[in-house]
Amino acid sequence: MTPQQLEECSETFRHFDRDHINRLEKEQFKAALAALGTAYSDEEFEDIYPKVSKGASSVTFEMFIEHIKSIEEDRTTPEQLAESFKALAQDKLEITEKDMIVGALPPDVIEYFKIVLPRGENGFDYKGYIAN
């Protein structure tokens, strides 16, 4: 998932998180997926929701991103992802939090990357992330 895709997902999540509690209820989650172009039949959705929510009554931002990421992995090539990170990192081998801020990534996306990207010597190792 490219930083741009993650930003789009973040904006969509915030739009449907009307209570601003960093969680989407079942119907909000379904609507957010549809807004991103992923529509499920009622039967498919009833099968997917308990897996994504891990049995909870709502989906957190992290759960939402993990689900979208699992869908997008089939669509985004590692080369496209590397190019996106490289552009944000201004051709450096690692990306810093400052690079992400300058790249106008939303704060929740930056926090997500700080969790999932491996730490490097001078920032975050996006190449290591892509390799996994």
Structure description:
The chain has 132 residues and is mainly alpha-helical. The protein is built from eight helices and two strands. The protein has helices spanning 3-16, 26-35, 42-53, 61-72, 78-88, 97-102, 107-116, 126-131, and strands spanning 23-25, 58-60. Strands 1-2 form a two-stranded antiparallel sheet. Helix 1 crosses helix 2 and helix 1 packs across helix 4 (61-72). The longest helix is centred in the first third of the chain and has 14 residues, at 3-16. The radius of gyration is 15 Å and the shape is elongated. The relative contact order is 0.16. The model has no long low-confidence stretch (mean pLDDT 90).
N/C terminus separation: 12 Å
Spatial strand arrangement across the major sheet = 1-2
Stretches with pLDDT under 50, minimum 5 residues: none
Q: Oligomer, anyone?
A: single chain
The count of strands amounts to: 2
Average pLDDT works out at 90
Helical content (DSSP H or I, runs of 4+): 55-70%
Which series of helices and strands comes N to C?
A: HEHHEHHHHH
Strand content: under 5%
Shape: elongated
Q: Rg, please?
A: 15 Å
- The helix tally amounts to 8
Q: What class would the helix/strand composition place it in? A: mainly alpha
Q: For the report, how would you describe the main beta sheet?
A: 2 strands, antiparallel
